[in-house]
Design brief:
The protein is of the alpha/beta class. It has eleven helices and seven strands.
């Protein structure tokens, strides 16, 4: 689920975390914050992208808290390398940048959450819990930045003007269910199980949904659903 500063029940499974930021003071502050949680374990730290890849390979954490702007290998290149490695790790991007194109690219490269620096500490904790549970997280400012990028076209191709109109009303009830589940972070196989339909049927519905809404991928569909209020539907 894409959460927007929402209340959540904690997941008590131990979460192994690596913190990646090129500023030692930031790393120390985050470590102090996260170690207050009984179910969090900070297993490592990294000061640049190359060190991140080494730490992830060595320590096999559950969650990586990743700054986008680091020396040697920046955050986006690090995300791309992690994606190619097929490692089962969830990434929360923690960044001071509100550059919409950077945030969109981070999502497309596979991060599970975006938290802007300056966010309340309790929301950083919640973001980690949510992505560890297999969901997605955008804090309020990050969500607003991404939606602004989506509305303006940005580096994503601008669909038809009707994208922001009444398109959601043209969806069938089943399609609206699938849109909501995509926005909540579920994969096709999980959607099929939840709705008691085949995975191929889910793929067929998504093909029709993409065509109706003039979106090109799951990220654009999730952002559309946020704008139209479909993400929170049952």
């Amino acid at each position: 689920m894409i959460w927007n500063d929402a209340e959540s029940k904690p997941n008590k499974a131990t979460v192994r975390i690596v913190i990646a930021d090129d500023h030692p003071v930031v790393r120390d502050a985050l470590k102090t914050l996260l170690q207050l949680e009984d179910d969090f374990e900070v297993v490592g730290e990294a000061g640049d992208g190359r060190e991140v890849l080494y730490k992830v390979r060595e320590l096999e954490p559950d969650v990586l808290l990743l700054d986008l702007r680091m020396p040697n290998l920046d955050g986006q290149s690090t995300l791309q390398a992690l994606r190619l490695s097929n490692r089962k790790i969830r990434v929360v991007v923690l960044t001071a940048s509100e550059d919409q194109s950077e945030l969109v690219q981070a999502m497309k490269l596979g991060c599970s959450g975006i938290v802007l620096k300056g966010t309340a500490p309790d929301l950083i904790v919640k973001s980690i819990r949510k992505v560890h549970a297999g969901e997605m997280w955008l804090d309020a400012r990050a969500a607003a930045a991404l939606v602004r990028q989506f509305e303006s076209g940005g580096d994503m191709s601008k669909p038809e003007q009707a994208r922001w109109g009444s398109e959601g009303k043209a969806l069938t009830s089943r399609e609206r269910e699938i849109v909501a589940l995509v926005a909540q972070g579920y994969k096709n196989k999980e959607i099929a199980w939840k709705l008691s339909i085949s995975e191929q049927t889910v793929k067929n519905h998504l093909h029709d949904i993409f065509h109706k809404l003039a979106v090109s991928d799951r990220l654009e569909l999730a952002l559309y659903s946020m704008h139209q209020g479909l993400a929170s539907e049952p």
